[in-house]
Design a protein that fits this description.
Blueprint (H helix, E strand, L loop, with lengths): L3 H15 L5 E10 L2 E7 L8 E2 L15 H4 L4 E5 L1 H12 L8 E6 L28 E3 L12 H8 L3 H12 L7 H5 L24 H14 L9 H5 L6 H16 L27
Parallel strand pairs: 1-4, 4-5, 5-6
Antiparallel strand pairs: 1-2, 1-3
Helix pairs in contact: 7-9
The structure holds iron/sulfur cluster (2 copies).
């Protein structure tokens, strides 16, 4: 039986495509692996019958919007969950995307599951189960919106000694094969030329070696500080299971503690590293 959200998404996509309001609709279709949904691009009203929505729709489709080849097709219709919507708003906030380039179909979401059928980690801290940025809203309101509080998760790592923490991250980063799947999957990693691809000067060693791996993962996390949507796409994409969300959550917590800023669904909100306050406490340089 189809989720009521599936039928509504199909109806909206068909209407937008038949009226010529969009050139392409990016949504989810039935996958071929572990029963998991996969991203699909729909270009005709007939193809819209392939669209689905259920708890296996884990991918953040907003990632496709960072590619000029997709934007060049024309106005794009897209399905977003709340966390994905945060990334989409981030692209607008950072002038990578204009509001009129997208027709947004937001879905209310009680969480999506990982390959093992368990609720994804990110869904346990989701504060946007009922998205507020959209052209169309699909699904019934979700009652139990969760607090954005991962202090319990981080406590284990924050109470480690510096040496223990070093050991822990060393054991994680030595697994990194520098495939950059995390970067490719991240909707907010959109630089035309990534710092790891610059070799004059070469800031980061490119071979899969612990020193370069540390630099890569720490720099990527810092570049996403105050911008990360918490969508989990990077960790999902990592083939060697590095817990990248631990880094993202830690930085989100620091940004909140220092600047009282949290990534939200308001394109006008101002992330701390894009502004300056003359009364900034500036504790880090004291
Ligand atoms: S860093 Fe990871 S969690 Fe954050 S926006 Fe990018 S893919 Fe999503
Ligand atoms: S996806 Fe994982 S293995 Fe690949 S570069 Fe990123 S952290 Fe390293």
């Amino acid at each position: 039986m189809n989720d009521e959200r599936t039928l509504k998404i199909r109806e909206i996509a068909k209407e937008l495509l038949s009226k010529g309001e969009i050139a392409v609709f990016i949504g989810y279709g039935k996958g071929t692996c572990n029963g998991k949904a996969r991203p699909i691009f729909v270009r005709t009203p007939e193809e819209a019958d392939e669209l689905i929505f259920d708890s296996t729709c884990s991918n953040n489709l907003v990632t496709y919007l960072k590619f000029p080849a997709v934007r060049d097709e024309g106005v794009v219709g897209i399905v977003v969950k709340g966390c994905d919507a945060k990334a989409l708003v981030g692209l607008i906030r950072e002038s990578q995307l204009m509001r009129e380039q997208v027709r947004i179909v937001a879905v209310t979401c009680e969480g999506v599951v990982a390959d093992d059928g368990q609720l994804q980690l990110r869904c346990q801290y989701c504060d946007v189960a009922n998205p507020t940025f959209y052209d169309f809203l699909v699904g019934s309101p979700v009652e139990d919106q969760k607090p954005r509080d991962f202090s319990g998760l981080l406590e284990k790592y924050e109470t480690m000694s510096v040496e223990e923490r070093w050991e822990f991250w060393q054991s994680q980063f030595e697994k990194c094969i520098r495939c950059y799947a995390c970067r490719q999957a991240c909707p907010l990693c959109y630089c035309t030329r990534c710092i790891v691809e610059k070799n004059q000067p070469q800031w980061i060693e490119t071979s899969s070696h612990l020193r370069g791996n540390f630099a890569w993962n720490i720099i990527r996390a810092f570049h996403l500080a105050g911008r990360c949507a918490g969508c989990g796409a990077c960790e999902d994409a990592c083939p060697v299971d590095i817990p990248l969300m631990l880094l993202n959550y830690k930085l989100e917590k620091e940004i909140w503690d220092y600047f009282h800023y949290r990534v939200d669904l308001d394109p006008e909100s101002v992330p701390p590293f894009t502004t300056f306050k003359t009364d900034d406490r500036g504790e880090f340089i004291l």
